[in-house]
Amino acid sequence: PPPALLPPAGTPAPAESGGGRHLAEAQALAERLLTTLRVGHVRGRAHVRLRLGGGLDGLELQLTEAAGGVSLTVTSEGPHREAERLAGVLGAALRRAGHRVEVEVEAR
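Structure (tokenized):
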């Protein structure tokens, strides 16, 4: 017989996990903090670029897949006191998650 697409009648619905609420909260946070989010490939490697707002205007994060790890670049438009701190916090979080990380901070 073909696979069933719906549970049998009388089967209780799965419990609500709150996933919809968490997704909405994450989306609201992203809308406040991000001005641009681009995901793609650069030279065949996965690449994510985020431009920040919400008090972190002028900062850009780039995460690029590197041989055996991740390259994190934090770029600021002129001197920005949060660039070094953000690079340190994100680099440490990626390392705790088990990634090998190369961190760089640049000013334009």
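The longest strand covers residues 34-42. Residues 72 and 90 are 8 Å apart (CA to CA).
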